[in-house]
Amino acid sequence: MINFSGNIVNEVHITSKYIPLICFKDQEQREIIDNYILKEAEYFFSLIKINIDVETNFLFCFNLITDKEFQTIDIKYFYENILNNIQRNSEGKLEHQPKWGVTFDKKCTPMKLAYVSPNYTGNNPKLNYENNKGKPFRDFGTFDINGQPIFYYLYFTMQEILDAIRVSD
User: What is the pTM (predicted TM-score) of this model?
Assistant: First the structure.
């Protein structure tokens, strides 16, 4: 369980003033949303060929920052929240599974996935921004170190969150 929608609590510390906290009435709704988001994240990472444990590497919205805070936040934030799962492999090299989180902010997700037919030859490929069911690929953004993503923002709309609950009723 990723606990995306959380519970209302007093005195909770939220890292960013630009990230909303979403709450639902009961546990059943929270589980529906958690399962929907996990399924969507698994699908996204499978498309980009990243082997990631989506449940373990989810960064809860209390701990997210936006592009606006990226340059000003203390470096300690990155070690405590994003780089806290670095390990050495059997060859002694550092390995890191990227973290990910949900955003409703388009400014954090400037990238789009697109599909190009493997049969295409030429200079100007026809990019398809939808999957084979006609659903647009999810927008995303990253924080990178040396060209390697260490964190992925996955863009969700409030409407799709609400639709996921409505479909389950």
Answer: 0.84
